[in-house]
């Protein structure tokens, strides 16, 4: 009976291919959205410690960056963004895909919404731990241009950043903000991966969509909106901790709770959602592109290697 049930399951790609496709999909999406990630990080750091903001809107931020740093400045930190996807996304999407398939019934029945959320959280936390060093480098590289020249760290690329951080601040600094990074990943992946699967399933069940790019796009946009609203407060904590400096031997923030308290007290409660537009403008397209690339690579692999 077990062998009959196993044979009824459709053929799937090997686990190492799932991990590879997950990373490649995330990296491909990053090439398109890196400027939006830069703007999002600058907006979250804008006006730190007061209600005065350096950038009035995301459009103002883009214009300021282009004016002061040139066209190439808008792609600052791309190498770190690619390494983050190669580590974080490869791990989280690979683990999520494997767990999702292992909990799918022999008749093709998908796991429940709650189980999808738990799978997403486990995958996200694992990926975040692996990807934290690249995340630290990315935050610092994208934040550098807003500082006076004498205060800039001046990392030339992600590997230069990782080596210098290890040498100048200790190797454990590469995992600074690991806890809020993992907490953010739990929120993001519970919202993003579960809501994507649920949205895609609901769209297909409606009878108005087929399993094609339009369905993937629509499900991804819904997933990105849910994720943005849920994860922004945790994301601003992560960004500020990873960018903070140590002054006279004391860090700017002791922990994530202190970041939240200071932001609310000095900048207002809704500053926790500061930069909502660039955050979604980055997360929405990145979610869309990641899942589209992933779906298309899976289809091509199935066509040429599983069905042949």
Automatic annotation (TrEMBL):
Solcar repeat segments run 17-102, 111-202, 211-300
Which Gene3D superfamilies does the record associate with it?
Mitochondrial carrier domain (1.50.40.10)
Q: Which Pfam families match?
A: Mito_carr
List the GO terms this entry assigns under cellular component, sorted alphabetically.
membrane
Reaction equations catalysed:
succinate(in) + 2-oxoglutarate(out) = succinate(out) + 2-oxoglutarate(in); malonate(in) + 2-oxoglutarate(out) = malonate(out) + 2-oxoglutarate(in); oxaloacetate(in) + 2-oxoglutarate(out) = oxaloacetate(out) + 2-oxoglutarate(in); maleate(in) + 2-oxoglutarate(out) = maleate(out) + 2-oxoglutarate(in)
Question: What keywords are annotated for this sequence in UniProt?
Answer: Antiport, Lipid transport, Membrane, Repeat, Transmembrane, Transmembrane helix, Transport
Q: Name one GO molecular function term.
A: alpha-ketoglutarate transmembrane transporter activity
**Subcellular location(s) per record:** Membrane
Which BP terms in the Gene Ontology apply to this protein?
lipid transport
Q: How does it sit in the membrane?
A: Multi-pass membrane protein
**What does the annotation say about its assembly with partners?**
Interacts with SMIM26.
The entry's family comment says: Belongs to the mitochondrial carrier (TC 2.A.29) family.
The job of this chain, per UniProt, is described as: Catalyzes the transport of 2-oxoglutarate (alpha-oxoglutarate) across the inner mitochondrial membrane in an electroneutral exchange for malate. Can also exchange 2-oxoglutarate for other dicarboxylic acids such as malonate, succinate, maleate and oxaloacetate, although with lower affinity. Contributes to several metabolic processes, including the malate-aspartate shuttle, the oxoglutarate/isocitrate shuttle, in gluconeogenesis from lactate, and in nitrogen metabolism. Maintains mitochondrial fusion and fission events, and the organization and morphology of cristae.
Stated name of the protein: Mitochondrial 2-oxoglutarate/malate carrier protein
| Species of provenance | Coilia grayii (Gray's grenadier anchovy)
């Amino acid at each position: 009976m077990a062998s009959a049930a196993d044979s009824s399951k459709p053929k799937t790609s090997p686990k190492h291919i799932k991990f590879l496709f997950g990373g490649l999909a995330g990296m491909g999406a990053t090439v398109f959205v890196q400027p939006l990630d830069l703007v999002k990080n600058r907006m979250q750091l804008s006006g730190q410690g007061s209600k005065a903001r350096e950038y009035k809107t995301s459009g103002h931020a883009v214009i300021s960056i282009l004016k002061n740093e040139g066209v190439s400045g808008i792609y600052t930190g791309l190498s770190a963004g690619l390494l983050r996807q190669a580590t974080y996304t490869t791990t989280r999407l690979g683990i999520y895909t494997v767990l999702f398939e292992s909990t799918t019934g022999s008749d093709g029945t998908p796991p429940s919404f709650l189980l999808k959320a738990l799978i997403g959280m486990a995958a996200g936390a694992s990926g975040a731990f692996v990807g934290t060093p690249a995340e630290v480098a990315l935050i610092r590289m994208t934040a550098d241009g807003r500082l006076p020249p004498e205060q800039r760290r001046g990392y030339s690329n992600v590997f230069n950043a990782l080596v210098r951080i290890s040498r100048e601040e200790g190797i454990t600094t590469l995992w600074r903000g690991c806890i809020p990074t993992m907490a953010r990943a739990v929120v993001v992946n519970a919202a993003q991966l579960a809501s994507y699967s649920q949205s895609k399933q609901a769209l297909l069940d409606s009878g108005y969509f087929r399993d094609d790019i339009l369905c993937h796009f629509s499900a991804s946009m819904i997933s990105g909106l849910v994720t943005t609203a849920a994860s922004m407060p945790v994301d601003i904590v992560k960004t500020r901790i990873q960018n903070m400096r140590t002054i006279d031997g004391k860090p700017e923030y002791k922990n994530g709770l202190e970041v939240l308290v200071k932001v609310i007290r000095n900048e207002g409660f809704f500053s926790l959602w500061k930069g909502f537009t660039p955050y979604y403008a980055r997360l929405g397209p990145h979610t869309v592109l990641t899942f589209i690339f992933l779906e298309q690579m899976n289809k091509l692999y199935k066509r040429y290697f599983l069905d042949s």
